[in-house]
Amino acid sequence: MIAHFRRFLMTRRGALTGLALLGLATPALAQNFPSKPITLIVPFAAGGPSDVIARLLGEHMGRTLGQQVVVENIAGAGGTAGAKRLVSAEADGHTVLIHHLALAAAPALYSNLGYDTSTAFAPVGLVNTGPMVIAGKLALPPVDGKAFFPYAKQQAEKLTVAHAGVGSNAHLCAVLISQALGVKLAQVAYRGTGPAMNDLVGGQVDVLCDQSTTAVPQIQSDKIRAYAVTSPERLGVLPNVPTSREAGTEIDMTIWHGLYAPKGTPAAALDKLNGALQAALKDPAVLERFKAVGTSAFPTAEWTREAHGKRFAAEVAKWGAALKAAGLTPQNAN
Ligand code: MLT
Known about the structure:
Blueprint lengths: L1 H9 L1 H10 L3 H7 L6 E5 L6 H17 L3 E5 L6 H8 L7 E6 H9 L11 E17 L7 H11 L4 E4 L5 H13 L4 E4 L3 H10 L4 E5 H9 L3 E6 L24 E9 L4 H16 L1 H9 L3 E2 L7 H21 L9
Parallel strand pairs: 1-2, 1-3, 5-6, 5-7
Antiparallel strand pairs: 3-9, 4-7, 4-8, 4-9, 4-10
The chain binds D-malate.
D-malate binds next to helix 4, helix 8 and helix 9.
């Protein structure tokens, strides 16, 4: 019996299970964390705002943690495919997801998520927050925000609006524009706003409401035309672009990203990840990059895992109620 138990402990799986039975596994594993490269899932295509923020953070966090952070783009279904992938990963801290308010909005828009949004994720920390920018291809007739909204209303379904799948920020922004104007616009779904932006620059699609992170560089290099920002104030990096209210149709939308691990990830691993995230957010070089694209870190009081958990729970409730009130369901989200 004792010999059998010893043999059991000699195998790798048996050793871990045996230690867990003795209550020793979690602290030992967490102490060695991370013991291999960390996968950072981006639930949208490469080149989009989630990808840009993930690569900036991942590189910095990897240096702090002494292990490479490898970005993996798992796009599809408005960011829910990447979320599903995280939920099925081992809960040891070596797989992390970057996501934004679409993670909180998804339960109101998808009936078959395959996970419970309120319990499936362990919040690691809040990353950045900023506005969206409503922009058009250069060939679109309106030359400014004031002219854009009446034009969009008059064009209605003749106007193509790109987004990153149902529930993505770009989609929710398109829905807000539609509702404000009281018309249906022609939505075109992509696997992320990276490819959607390429098509806006190329003129294959008319309009995209994208996060400032990837919209600002294209606007500054005159590849697309900005009509309005969705924040109450103008953006410092786009001083000539009006707020949507100034442009005559108020679209109020602020996005935010956070990092998540699967539920059940040991607290010590979550704390190390949060520490590495905080180190990145303290770095003036990272903050400079954020500022250059019109996004910001959260106030330091909100850098804890607890603050992220609180915000996430509040956003799930908020988006559930808001989308219900707007009459948006899994059946009619397009
Ligand atoms: C992306 O990275 O493609 C975006 O975060 C998608 C979106 O939500 O608009």
